[in-house]
Amino acid sequence: MAIAAVVVMMMGACAHQQSGYTPDGKHFTIDVMNRMTPVKDQGDAQTCWIYAMLAAIETEHLSWGDSVNLSPYYIEKMIEQEKACPATKRGEPTTLITMIEKYGICGYDAMRKPDAPAPRYVFMLGAQYTPQEFARSVCKPGEYIALMCDDSKPYNEESELEMPDNWTHERYLNIPIDTLMAKTEHAVRMHHGVCWEDKHHAMAIVGLAHDDDGERYFIMKNSWGDRGRYDGLEYYPMERFRDETVAVEMTNDAYNI
Questions:
Q1: In 3D, which of 67, 71, 53, 55 has the Cα closest to residue 124?
Q2: Nearest alpha carbon to residue 68 among 139, 166, 16, 143
Q3: 186-212 residue pLDDT tens
Q4: Are 150 and 159 in contact (CB under 8 A)?
């Protein structure tokens, strides 16, 4: 099975819409639930890629016993300096990694609104850092790997993800879908932060579940506020994951365990 979406323009919006991810009328049993920061709300912005990747980084740090809650608004403001950034501010989760390495990052409490000024310094445990210095403790260069599945390209080689949203020309490791699914599930079971995207949206994967019929699900942390029956979480069927996934991001440590 080829995920043809890899070469198709992203259509639709990742801003608030009817969920459509969690099936109606299901009872779920949670198998794994990883630690996570509070669900955030992207509002009408087209920046789910920022929220999803930051949420994955936050869960990764929580698994180490290191709590960080990061500001999506800082990245939104920083990318306004990028000539290639579209007016919609759409992008890829890997774009977030590149922007953190370039501009740094700050905590959520330091910048809680999109129109707030970007802080010049980050204060943590009595110490002062620049956003770039703080970023090196949050996301080291080369720490994360991006994965995709495209049958039209050689497996186990890196290729540029052919999406208009990939305006930073990020490269992804192309692997078979069964390998991608197995790597993703294992990373979640080992409590790593994982970021997922399809053609329309991106979310962080924070757990695993099954329903009464034995169907299996990834539990995903959305960025549309803590609305809904599951307080901002979605139960995403693994079979749908197989058919609709465009890419997944995780640490190299998570990929190699």
A1: 67
A2: 139
A3: 999 999 999 999 999 999 999 999 999
A4: yes
